[in-house]
Amino acid sequence: MRHGAEFSVIGSSREDALFSYIARSKVATSRYLVLALLTGAYVLSVIDRGIISVVLTDVQNEFSLNDTQLALLGGTAFALFYATLGIPIARLADRSNRRIILAASIIVWSAATALSGVTAGFWSLFLTRVFVGAGEAGCTPTSHSLITDYFRKGELARALGVYSAGAIIGMLSGFLLGSVLAQHFGWRTVFIALGIPGLLFGAVVVLIVRDPRYDSPGVASAPPRLDVPLRESLGDLLGNPIYRAALFGHGFSLVCFYALFVWIYPLVERSFELSKTAIGQYTALALLFGAIPGMVLGGLLTDRMAAYNIRWRGWLPAFWVLVSTPLYYATLAADTASLLFIWFGLFAFCINMHHAAAFSIVQIAAKDHQRALAVAMVLLVSNLLGYAALPVVAGYLSDTVFRDMGANSIRYGLAVVGLASLVGTSFFLLAARGR
Questions:
Q1: CA-to-CA distance for 82 and 100, rounded, in angstroms?
Q2: pTM for the structure as a whole
Q3: Left if phi > 0, otherwise alpha if psi is -120 to 50, otherwise beta: which for 302?
Q4: What is the DSSP string of 25-58?
Q5: Rounded to whole angstroms, how far apart are CA atoms 286 and 289?
Q6: Cβ neighbour number for residue 226 with a 10 Å cutoff
Q7: What is the Cβ-side half-sphere exposure of residue 163, based on CA atoms within 13 angstroms?
Q8: What number of H helices and E strands is found in the chain?
Q9: Which residue in 338, 327, 325, 177 sits closest to 268, CA to CA?
Q10: CA 172 to CA 381: how far, in whole Å?
């Protein structure tokens, strides 16, 4: 990639000093333990954001909702505040103690998840989902920023790949636990039982995780460049063609995965005779053997290939998103449940192979005082597209244009929004060219 300077803005002297401090410090724990805790927080966040898809049909029956309202609950309520509040919270993370911000975020979203189990209708459930999104807005930007302090650039994609695998672990855990709880105890118990553990985990983060900026005297006693206005930071990021291409490439590429994440239970329940527990088990297996290897191997492959030619950070995600697209449509076209989950597992592997590469571009292209903000911008775009907008478009098309298709109406709605992945491929090719 050209514009090589934009990929080395994480100053080598400060990086070496931070790494040296982390390696020798008696205060900071093992960086791998920190990575494990950050990944654990991500697991909990994805469980809490995703379990609503497990109970959408139950909520629809109790509150008499249509598909558009289901999509608003399953995606939009969460994504609007998750995406928009990510900017100010990321700004705070770039200027404050990230350990405290992360712990507070965990406690807020966990409490909101538990409260979802005592809601009385559409609007009260919508409101609790809003607060789940508001709390989770502080998780990934803060964690990515910390990971970039704990790991060198040559290790960054694999570390981010491990962290990103937390999303898949959270999905499959949520599907398995949520399905069993919903099957035996009802949908309200799902929210309460899966929200409460996060309150304890937040306390663990406060006690164990350390922010190198505040625990490394003489290295980075305070975050750098506190005086940079938000407008200048945003302008600097969006003016970088490589960052801009990764921003939109990742956003459009994830549309298919998010859409299936929101609609997988209604999609299967309407077409096949499977219980919630069975759907949860099959979905978990597909994610376990597809998505998790994709996340981890994608990071390892990216770091290895980028050592030979940095353009691979753009070429690899473009390739994997392109390959995943026909697998997405094969999932929608499957005429048996077994075939659907096989195709879904293959799709999940390929689409998640791009994840670590995309975020490694983001972290390397961002300056030190912009790292959390850079991630928040990516989450803003990907969640507005993938959660807030296009799953609702799929639901609306199911209710209107394809309503005469009966149980298959949502398949056709999802088929339309899947075209967004081709746009994502194009942006990653631009990233590889440095544009």
A1: 18
A2: 0.70
A3: alpha
A4: -SSS--HHHHHHHHHHHHHHHHHHHHHHHHTHHH
A5: 6
A6: 10
A7: 32
A8: 24, 0
A9: 338
A10: 24
In whole angstroms, what is the distance from residue 241 CA to residue 236 CA?
Answer: 10
User: With 50 as the cut, is the pLDDT of residue 411 above it?
Assistant: yes
Please report where in the chains the tokens 């109790």 appear, as a residue: 62
State whether the Cα torsion 194-195-200-203 is positive or negative: positive
Cα–Cα distance between 386 and 394 in angstroms, integer? Answer: 11
Structure tokens at 319: 């390739």
Burial class (CB within 10 angstroms; exposed 0-12, middle 13-18, buried 19+) of 64: exposed
For 206-217, write each residue's pLDDT tens digit. 888 888 877 655
CA proximity to 39, closest of 167, 195, 134, 127: 167
Take residue 124 and report the two structure tokens written for it: 């009260």
Tens digit of each residue's pLDDT (9 = 90 or more) over 329-379:
999 999 899 999 999 999 999 998 988 888 888 878 877 777 778 888 888
Task: Summarize pLDDT for 178-236 with one digit per residue, the tens.
Answer: 888 988 898 899 999 999 999 999 999 988 888 887 765 544 444 455 557 778 888 88
- Residue recorded with tokens 């399905």: 179
- Phi, psi for 293 (deg, rounded to 5): -60, -35
CB 207 within 8 A of CB 61: no
Q: How many CB atoms lie within 10 A of CB 423?
A: 16
- CA distance to 61, 104, 357, 409, 425, per residue, from 301 (Å): 45, 34, 9, 39, 18
Higher pLDDT, 157 or 206: 206
